[in-house]
Predict the 3D structure of the following.
Amino acid sequence: MMGLLGWWFSQLSLPNASNFSLAVDRLYDFIFWLSVVSFLAIVLMMVVFVAKYIRRREGEATPYIEGHTPTEIGVSAGLFVLVMIIFYWGYRDYMQMRTPPAGAMEINVTGRQWEWEFQYQNGRVVARQGSEPPVFVLPRGQNVKLILQSKDVIHSFYIPEFRVKQDVVPGMYTFLWFEPTAVGEYTVYCAEFCGTDHSRMLARARVVEPADYETWQREWELAGVKSAWERQANAAATKSAAAKPTGPETIADQGKALFATKACSACHSVDGVSGAGPTLKAVFGHDVALADGSTVKADENYLRRSLMEPAAQVVKGFNGGVMPTFQGQLKDAEVTALIEYIKTLQ
Amino acid sequence: MSQEEYRMPEAVSYLNSPKGWKSWLFTLDHKRIGMMYLLLTMVFFAVGGIFALLVRYELLTPAPTFAANTYNKMFTMHGAIMVFMFIIPIIPAALGNFFLPLQIGAKDVAFPRLNLASYYIFIGGALLAVLAILLGGVDTGWTFYTPYSIKTATAATLVTLGVFVMGFSSILTGLNFIVTIHKLRAPGMTFHRMPLFLWAIYATAIIQVLATPVIGITTVLLVMERVLHIGFFDPAIGGDPVLFQHFFWFYSHPAVYIMILPGMGIVSEVITVFSRKQIFGYRAVAYSSLAIAFISFIVWGHHMFVSGQSELANLLFSLLTMLVAIPTAIKVVNWTATLYRGSIRLGTPMLYALAFLFLFTIGGLTGLFLAALSVDVHLHDTYFVVAHFHYVMMGGTVMGLLAGLHYWWPKMFGRMYPETWAKVSWGFVFVGFNVTFLPQFMLGRLGMPRRYHEYAPHFAGLNQLSTVGSWMLGVGFLIMFTYFLWSLKRGAFAPANPWGGKTLEWQTASPPPTENFHQTPTVTAGPYEYGLKAMGT
Amino acid sequence: MTTATHGTLHVHHHFETAEQQYQSSKLGLWLFLVTEILLFGGLFVVYIIFRGLYPEMFSQAHHFLDRVLGSVNTMVLICSSFTMAMAVRAVQRSESARASQLLLITFFCGLLFMGIKYLEYTHKFHEGLLPGIHFHNAELTHPKAALFFSLYFMMTGLHGIHVLVGMGLIAWMIVGCNRGRFDAHYSTPVELTGLYWHLVDLIWIYLFPLFYLIS
């Protein structure tokens, strides 16, 4: 029996490659051994009783046992304590997964049928090359926050070695974060069924030493490699001549250009002075008081909603209905760029 | 006791009186309606099983064997058929219909015409689903998640309509059972003298009545969304795709208990009768069914821990889900304790009941991994979930069903099944099941996502093992179908009470006459009054 | 509440007494009403969610519903509930002719209700106030307004189907009354039809303010 369990464990070794791996595995192991003990207790009892009390002749007498209330209460109470421990343990680790630390490196990830696309802060886009899944590079030891969005149906971003997973839902941003702790290459799976090529919707996360990561980015910046998307965005930005980027353009730069071309600056200052609309300085990540008396944390989803439905969550002291909606006016990528720009206004 | 009373071959029973196919199709007899459900749901079980074998065949090798779309349709049809057309209806509608009135000493269910109507409504819904298969099938998975289910070009509309219609059948059956249990019990049959199978059916019926209307309206919304584009689940015009998941699981989580509770009820019957022991903790087992039914309504969000719902919601759903462990464990402990100092006979029904105990314990314990938030983030949507679900549904419900089928086979058909072949088949099913699904826990732990039609080579070994297991399961069921059919004509005639059961269905002939009992029985004692008080209480 | 002296003429073989049969039917119907409430409950939940998300859209869009017609319809249904209750009472007193007349009035109230709904619907169709992507109204500019009309048509449409089913049942009861099938000893079908009709009214009582009277 123990040999079998040992074999089971050897089968189940999955590399630990993020800051969460060990914590998740610890709770997994705790539940596993608890289960093994409970299972063996039940099955041993069952086997022993069956062997010992097997019917030897018809019409054997048996005792009349109705039950034993202390046993029931004892089992319930003991189990209650155990499951509450599991609950709290799981919840504590989970909350850590849901709380990205300040200063994490952010990457925008877009899922669509059936591919992933990664966009770094400096504007570098990693997309699929032909039938080869995209390989995006991460520095070891650096906190990484992925901001996920979907263009069509629900996908799910999953890296088993990191023990992280998050559904990617159209119409909203979701996020996850981790710190890659081991150099190597790990497969990103789509875990939510999304149609024909669901099982081919893969990507590779290549974790390298920070210095190698810097090299990887610098090489791109020097070579001036630009994705098709970026060229398009540049073309849109240069038309207005408001901002002529020199050198590689970051997402925030693209957002800044859009901020001018879409005339956002007519109402929203970036220096802390209120105009027809609230200033956007030091908004992101802060609590915003709303006209209806509630407060809301200004995160990606709040900013997105303010663009799409300006009248839904109006800032205290301003009038709803002044700002036009940008529903259908802005592409998803442009919304993301604007939000990235607003994030820089601290 | 009528143990020695052997039925004469020409005896009049519900099976041969009245005669003719019309007398079956228009029957109002709960036993015949139960039989017709049994036949139909077993056919769907076979069809769903063939799809399962095809799914496992595809996964024998990492590279694709079938086209991706074919595979996607196969796992969808396997899930949808097994869930909506086999495992939800079979125990309540087939065995429940047959034995509920018998066990409470009634002549029929409260509304026999409604009962027949439910059957034809079920056929109507099933026909829509079958039509969908003929028109090319559907590829959304049995969960129909939006927005994919709105965008797919496959016959999703027909299947969801079929689920809607079959839902009505389920509602009406549940309603019928609740009224029957409340109003038609024989004199002396108090609630606390009811067999535990009926407590389970009662709890199931409550869920059927309260939860199924919600899946009804959800499927209507999905159909409207596909046909009229009403936009509730379409983010482009302000809808919310995740809203569908809330609606779906609000029904489908309780539905999981619609599937498992009747199986638990059967196990309670079989373990007591084959141990000749009073059940350990009758009230605890009975009330835990109700507790499970109640909790089932407030845990749906545990299917959505990574869907983007708020951390607070996840906290509550994880906390509440943990509570399910308690009534479930109470049942397992009480069943095991019932064996203590019994007089245990290892007949086939008992072997399946013990298999239930073994497999369901694994299924229940692996639920703990999925209820713990941080671990679920890793395991969600992997093969771990697939294995857990099958350990509960197949290791639980199907083992309970097979226990019940063997236990009640003599009563239903008046013939014994061949014991030796039944044990051979049991061996194949039990071993085959574990060989199929234990490796899937490991696959999930290693991170293989579900619903993948091709996979990385390092998952190959475990997948091959699993596929071999599925063949063993197939052989086991093939033997079972064969000897069941054989026994209908050739099996030994069954006595009225072959197992020494104390519940009312054993006090009438095998098979029972049309009116169930020649005289309305009067109940004076509980259902499992075995044992001598002198030997200890 | 009801007579305990039901005749034995209509007792099905599997019931011991008429009272047992009557109590079973009644419990059955109450359970059925529970499932109806849950069916509509799902839609009410959708309503609450979207109204919470887009309150200003709801208050804009509801001006496009006709309050007068809605109020008239509410009155019509309340009247019909009243005549339905009187009809049940008449049956319980074995006044078949009177019951039949009252049921007929109830039936026509239902018909009137559906007629007015028809007017409202055709008007909405004409103005392009349609569900989902079919919405095309020049005046109502809110980008999410289509959701309001999706809800409006789903909920009032489902309710309308229930009114039609109720009218069918009432027509059946009228035939039964005219043939003298119901009296003080056996009034179960009329009573149950009455209960169902009251539920249908009750649901409208909720629908009316939720759609027409948003302030």
Summary: Residues 187 and 295 of chain B are 32 Å apart (CA to CA). Confidence is low (pLDDT under 50) at residues 1-5 of chain B. The two ends of chain B are 24 Å apart (CA to CA). The first helix of chain B runs from residue 21 to 25.
